Amino acid sequence: MSAEESQRGAEHRAREALRLLPEANYGVGLEGGLEEISGKWFECGWMHVVERSTGRSGLGSSARFEMSNKLMQKILVEGKELATVIDELSGQTDVRSGQGAMGILTNSYLGRAEAYSHGLIFALAPFLSDSKYWDD
User: Where are the domains of the chain?
Assistant: First the structure.
């Protein structure tokens, strides 16, 4: 999944959240994905926030981390999802709902929730800061 596909996925989730929750002022969508940069593969999470009243939106991402060839072999050649590969190698179940691959690969130094929180704050930046910094 490219960065563009992940961004579209996050936007779709944000708009779907607004559709499902008519009382919500904002819709938030998160989508993880893999991206090849200079011949290396990286994992990253994208966050999209949409304001219902204006339609304004913001986009942010987590930090990226390099994926090993071992993991990418299982994903690209064997056709497995990252979550499945991490579950198999770690011996845990449903890692994606907890610390995520980020947590496993950093030995719990940085879990997905903490890493993704930065991306969410960046996606909220147009709503948190003075409007003089943003397009009309």
Answer: 3-129
DSSP one-letter string for 100-119: HHHHHHTTTSS-HHHHHHHH
Q: Is the pTM of this model over 0.90?
A: no
Cβ(84)–Cβ(92) under 8 Å?
Answer: no
Does 3.40.190.10 match the CATH number of domain 3-129?
no
Among residues 116, 103, 108, which one has the least CA distance to residue 29? 116
Instruction: Kindly state the helix (H) or strand (E) to which residue 51 belongs, with its residue range.
Output: strand 40-51
| Banded model confidence at residue 80, pLDDT cuts 50, 70, 90 | very high
Report residue 107: phi and psi, to 5°: 55, 40
What pLDDT does 30 receive? Answer: 96
Q: Report whether 42 contacts 65 (CB < 8 A).
A: yes
Report residue 131's pLDDT band, with 50, 70 and 90 as the boundaries: confident
Distance CA 53, CA 134 (A): 17
CA distance 57 to 43: 23
